[in-house]
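Malate synthase: structure, please.
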Amino acid sequence: MPSTESILQGVNVLGPVSESQKKILTPEALAFLALLQRSFNSTRKALLERRKIRQAELDKGALPDFLPETRHIRENPTWKGAPPAPGLVDRRVEITGPTDRKMVVNALNADVWTYMADFEDSSAPTWDNMINGQVNLYDANRRQVDFKIGNKEYKLRTDKKLPTLIVRPRGWHLEEKHVTVDGEPMSGSLFDFGLYFFHNAFQTVKMGFGPYFYLPKMESHLEARLWNDVFNLAQDYIGMPRGTIRGTVLIETILAAFEMDEIIYELRDHSSGLNCGRWDYIFSVIKKFRQNSNFVLPDRSAVTMTVPFMDAYVKLLIQTCHKRGVHAMGGMAAQIPIKDDPKANEAAMEGVRADKLREVKAGHDGTWVAHPALAGIAVDIFNKHMPTPNQLFVRREDVTIGQNDLLNMNVPGQITEAGIRKNLNIGLGYMEAWIRGVGCVPINYLMEDAATAEVSRSQLWQWVRHGVTTAEGKKVDKQYALKLLKEQTQELASKAPQGNKYGLAAQYFSGQVTGEDYADFLTSLLYNEITSAGPARAAAKL
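Here you go.
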């Protein structure tokens, strides 16, 4: 094999590197990143171009359907995904959150079965957030993550086995501009995956689990095939047996819902199941069919998990996963405790109970919470109704889901001015925080991340684009949307500390809510605001 020094030719780091971060950005780790980038970036870019072609077809009125060319995969009952890996047999409650040190300690101390450490939707990808996140996970896997702020100590508990750690890298569409390979920014996906895998693959096996990942934002089985190729090369490179890595795919795009069998098939030696990424899924439905007036949805609060297209998606996901012997994970409970209003808090927690009861009775093998205080509720529900480690034996052979079911937009509800203002508040609140480097924001006692902000701005775009009329009788047009945006910006800014970013957030948001320009992702739109790329330094000389 070529030397590390020769591989690092053409690799530059544009972000500052502190002493504590040097153990992550070693020459050997950077050489591994370069290998991944040179091997797979051209395929990644080709798949992103394929997304654009598919979007153009949808804009002209085409509708997705199950692929005729992969019918043989769907209709072959004999193939299976990989058996559950160590630490992933029982996943009844998973907590998710960003990779800051406090969150890592609190999540690993929570009474849950796994912790999804998130470099994606609940993290703003500043250079410091991404690198310090890697430092924190490196330390956590070596049980060296304890720290102190003032008089408060954060220590990993020693009285029980800690949750299995799963890492979510960024989606295929995002870049890491602080590292370039041969003059091009690194893929954010390969950067996050590569650094974590390189430093932690053998360590996690030693700890009794393995290098496990959640894979976001995929739109086709070809994108899953790319991840599988990445996994194979990575394992071969460090001398790890193939199949040690496991990946759980978030089905959070409408196009992926038509290719769930194929996605598991592509990853079958590495598959640990699928997950219902509910908010991103709703975002995807609006985004993909934004030019089609038949797909206009009412206020976000009316688009629940029991409306026809969401119910069909859940049933098909559970049926598909269990047919292939892999986990079917439920969605997020985004509520956070309302400490100053016991009555409102109990109502919110009752909503969590009902949601988790729906999931376990549907056949899900586990569920997500965003806050440790919700873990107990989810655990109680799943323990009562799922005494087994999982429900892979619940085949859901009663389910028959077709194209019309997945595209059934018969969603009762209205579009209201209150709903518009709520979307504006969520979008502005999230974007303002993201520009400040915070990717997970409590708004109205819900933990909002990029997915919910995307739903908010996409609905606003859709409503203006199709000239809908509110329940109050007001036509939603560009002028009305911008008027309400201005009012909500002023209201939020007046309550926020000096130096807030609401004005800048509103500048970006104003271009996204008028039914005209539509950025592929808010995170891509805003990324340059949080980059701190400085002079290029050769990776070999860090």
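Notes: The chain has a mean pLDDT of 96.
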